Amino acid sequence: MYPTASASPLPASQPNSGGSLLLQSFKNKDGSLDINKAMETAGMMVNTVSQISKVVKDMAGWMKA
Q1: Vertex 18, ends 16 and 21: CA angle to 5°?
Q2: Residue 11 domain-assigned?
Q3: Are 26 and 33 in contact (CB under 8 A)?
Q4: Where is the stretch described as Disordered (predicted)?
Q5: How far, in whole angstroms, is CA 51 from its chain's centroid?
Q6: 50 within a domain of the structure (yes/no)
Q7: For residue 15, how many other CB atoms are within 10 A of its CB?
Q8: Can you give the residue range of the structural domain that contains 39?
Q9: Between 57 and 16, where is the model more confident?
Q10: Inside any domain, residue 9
Q11: Is residue 2 part of a domain?
């Protein structure tokens, strides 16, 4: 009836634990941690949260009016 998803969405070489997969996203090709990439990503997350919180506050103000 419905299409089925594959049993393993990640390639077999990828670990299944979320924490190590997250850390692998910030590693260089030589396996060392890329601090600049991690800091850039953290900065983008902070900016996104800040923008979303402003929108939520504005919407809450509209609902009160």
Answers
A1: 80
A2: no
A3: yes
A4: 1-24
A5: 16
A6: yes
A7: 11
A8: 18-64
A9: 57
A10: no
A11: no
- The continuous run of DSSP H or E covering 58 comes out as helix 35-64
Q: What pLDDT is stored for residue 24 in this prediction?
A: 87
* Each residue's pLDDT tens digit, 12-56: 555 555 568 888 888 988 989 999 999 999 999 999 999 999 999
Query: Is there a contact between 54 and 48 (Cβ–Cβ < 8 Å)?
Result: no
The three state secondary structure string of 42-54 is: HHHHHHHHHHHHH
Query: Can you give the C-alpha Rg of the chain in angstroms?
Result: 19
pLDDT score, position 61: 87
Does the pLDDT value for residue 5 go beyond 80?
Answer: no
User: Is the full-model pTM beyond 0.70?
Assistant: no
